[in-house]
Amino acid sequence: MYRYIINRVLLVFPTLIGAAFLVFALMRLIPGDICLVRLGGGGTSFTAQSLANCHAEIGIDRSWIVQFIDFVWGLARFDFGVSMWSGKPVVVEILSRFPISLEVALIATLISITIAIPLGTISALKQNTWIDLLVRTFSIAGLATPSFWLGIMSILIVLDLTQAIFGQPWMPPIDYVSLWQDPIRNLSIVMLPALTIGYRYAAVSMRMTRSAMLEVLREDYIRTARAKGLLEKIIINRHALKNALLPVVTVIGIEFAFLLGGLVVTEQVFNLNGIGRLMVLSVQNQDYTLTQALVMVVVTIAVLTNLFVDLMYAWFDPRIRLN
Amino acid sequence: MASAIRVWGIVAGMLLIASPGLTAETPKPGGTFTFMIPADAPPSFDAHREGTFATLHAVAPFYSVLIRINPDNPSSTTDIVCDLCTEMPKPTDGGKTYTFKIREGVKWHDGTPLTADDIAASWEHIVHPPAGVLSVRQSWYMMVDTITAPDPKTVVFRLKFPTTAFLPALADPFTLVYKKEILAKDPRWYEKNILGSGPFKSPEYETGQSIKGVRNPDYHHEGLPLLDGFIGIFAAKQATRIDAIRGDRAAMEFRGLPPSAIEELGKALGDKITVQTSDWNCGSMVTANHKKKPFDDARVRRALTLGIDRWRGVPALSKIADVHTVGGIVFPASPLAATKEELQQIAGFWPDIEKSRTEARRLLKEAGAEGLSFELLNRNIDQPYKYVGAWLVDEWSKIGLKVNQRVAPTGPWIDAMRRGDFQVTLQANCRSLPNPLLDIQVYLPGSIFAGNYGFYEDAHEVELYERMLHETDFAKQRALMREFEKLVIDTEAHENWLVWWYRTVPHRSYVKGWKISPSHFLNQDLATVWLDR
Amino acid sequence: MTFATPTPTGTAAVTLDDFVPPRGVIALSIRFFRRQPVGAIGMVLVMFFGLGGIFADWIAPYNPTANDFAAMTEAPSWAHWLGTDQLGRDLLSRILYGARTAFIVGLSAAMVGGFSGLVLGVGSAYFGGRIDLFLQRILDIFMAFPLIIMALAVVSIFGTGVQNVILAITIPLIPRCARVVRSSALAIREIPYVDAARALGYGHKRIILRHMVPNVVAPFLIMLTAFVGQAILAEAALSYLGLGVQEPVPAWGLMLQGGAEEYATTAPWIAVFPGLAIMLTVFGINLFGDSLRDVLDPKMRDR
Hints:
Distance between the termini of chain A: 6 Å
Number of strands of chain B: 18
Shape of chain A: flat
Structural class of chain A: mainly alpha
Strand order of the largest sheet of chain B: 12-16-11-15-13-14
Mean pLDDT of chain A: 81
Helix content of chain A: over 70%
Shape of chain B: globular
Number of strands of chain A: 0
Strand content of chain B: 15-25%
Largest sheet of chain A: none
Helix content of chain B: 25-40%
Oligomer: heterotrimer
Number of helices of chain A: 14
Largest interface: A-B, 53 and 62 residues
Number of helices of chain B: 16
Radius of gyration of chain A: 25 Å
Mean pLDDT of chain B: 88
Order of helices and strands of chain A: HHHHHHHHHHHHHH
Low-confidence stretches of chain B: 12-22
Strand content of chain A: under 5%
Largest sheet of chain B: 6 strands, mixed
């Protein structure tokens, strides 16, 4: 068991280094650089001297090897450097935008769990009835709808509805306040985006819950319990649900890391100042340090989540545990 | 069509309601003004090193400048007035020396007095920056020889040669005045910090979110500012800004919105919205890479411009894009600009499009480039780049050219242009205060002007320009300008000037005291803005 | 060779040949549709858009890229069934041609991604050892790497255009496919008969192709159908961010970008119809994929 854990943990490092190399190389392969964006982005002109000064100031005139060593050495010391665009420490840039993305992600997960588990269970229990069909249609529709389109439509609908009912169009506030400062205002900003992401997330979880439940319900021990005359409710709660939850939790866990993709687009639609938008911005600005740091953060979360899931499975798999 | 008439009727109506109201009321002091800045976050707060409105809209309210365009008449191209000086000086010494007398009693926000030394140091920072300091406007002031402050109340500019281009350049809104003491200690301090002498103080910046300021009670203009404070919210996405104005989360934004937004706001809010419009000192142009065949042939380049139906295409395009006026290389409202009759002599502006297109096809055939197919490099932004690009592809197809677009994000786009990795590119020329003599520098060959990506040389053109720059007689200067214009966009067709952009700024009707100007960089210190509610 | 292999209902005797798929695609399809009406509905939806895309040249009433400044943002009418967009282009024609782009992108990305994943997954499972370890690490990296940054970078480096969009979308699909294929293939690997077959002198190629691959075909096909849907959605998202196909190519995602949001309140049809097209197509693909899974999943087959 311990050998397995150590092996598995050690495997994390090549992945991280590989990802660091990949992002480093990709960013520098993009033609142009941040100085061009900064100096020429306004449609005005700049001299070659200004450009050279800018390069020297930021440090992108050094050789790639030097820059890479700098980067990796910084990572090892948890020093992520400064953003090339704003000159502020990368940590500050990321942390100031983290709360809103985290909040949206958490509320989306909450929404999805609250919808998915009960609906998925009912769907499994009432397999092939019209309830099952309805839930399945609902979940497949959730997978098929582009989340940004859903976001655009929802803003529109809210705007038009409030105009029709109240005469005044309502839209969420555009300046962010934290949950502790003003909960109502904060929730009114975060609700629509969380619902948009949550719907899709719920769709995935719903399907997983349904199929996991279906599998478990077919197991021999469930049949035995039924034959013994146990109440259906007890069977579901004590036996079926518990065992079905393992793969469901796995999926929720893995999907959480991939929530980022949904965040990027949703933050664009709702103009939220979060991590997703920061990512798009940092690549567009060709801000190497910021992009590199962001990618490392995301990759680390994904890798650690996978590690956790693998270890969990190893714990439950007696072949490995009792080795 | 009917709906379009209705929309422009509403707009006209709103303008009619709005215009007398703008001048005839008593300003009410007080209130906090919320506006949006159409960007994600400024690269830095130092206006001397940045060229983006993101920086300027955020920091202009905190600073003063030496001279500026009159805030009560910002659409004029010649009405320049003092901010920190006492009166506009007459040049002496054959037009080479300008002596400015500075106001008394101006204070920095930290309480210390502002003197001529500060102004001289700020201008040195712009015109003769120390090694390692970036000043993007340096080349505009190549006519300046020395800047001195012989006493705390006087600043003297000495030029290398007299030119009418100097004063407008001096009035550029990015030339904020910084404190000498700070610049001496750390010339880059202003990138991350704000300390000025302007109408607002106590800046509060939240990364990528908003910037706030409060009223400066010691401001050197009596009775101003009228507001208690302001909040500038960064909102890069257009739909967000429109929704915000619609839902009254913010009163306006200062860059300009496209016609669709105006229509939508008009329909939703009626007379709660006022719209101000102005020609913009920005425009779209097509540049052919003279190093790539067949664009080294002037006939092919002339065909490109002859094939475009500006007179009919632009009005249609103006319904969906931020464009409006068909004009030559000089800002339309400037006295140096060509009249319609003069314009119609130039290739691409002929009144008869069929004649124009036939000539284009003839030229292409002669040059052996009939049915040519090429790639148009374009920037990955909707307004108006992608709309203009789509229009161009369509227009060129009517003279038998098969064009496809290569759209790139800003960085790769500029990089491709600098390296000459393109055949034809669509770019923009965006300047601030209309100053035709400097604004047309973009047409000069790349060896003279860094922002020219045509990769050509033309000594005759440069010689013409120099003569124009040094000419002090207006009539002669105008004649030279016509010659220059004809050479650059007709005979040699080095560049292909398409259309001038249009600035349409809708705002909530309770916002008063702000007047639109030809540049989104002008008139941004908010001192005269007041809220009627 | 026969083996006894455990099933949920007891044990069954299986031979190597049981792992080869049954013949007769047509017979199979007919049987499929009769047993899975929901899947049939999905197929109908997909065919509707697919055929629309194929025959667009004949069915579409207008040229999808022709600007018509006299008819900008017109509401649906008899002249333009779905209305026009902000450049006066007919929406119905653009949706029909857009189906073509959607399927080209979707099918190409799914095929390339799927088959690369298949090769990598089977190879990794079969050869095991250090090759497996190395390949898995590479795949891990690409799976953890944020798709958006990858797509942004690919498009910035190689330019926009249909091939590059397909490339950007395919990259994240490969490791996911390889993972699934690998775990199915590993299940075969563990069974002793592979070693026995090797001992008997069967070559790598024969074992892989005749026995390993057929066992992974079921989950692989299901993944492929899921990929087509995901690729279409990914193209839409990339185009929305401005990184996908460019003007004037008609593509559903592109139609939802820029103009659609600008005109969302005054001309909602510009945003609604392309979004509906995407949704219905992917919905159909998912329905079909679901039914396929119900049929091919061996655990369900025994009931």
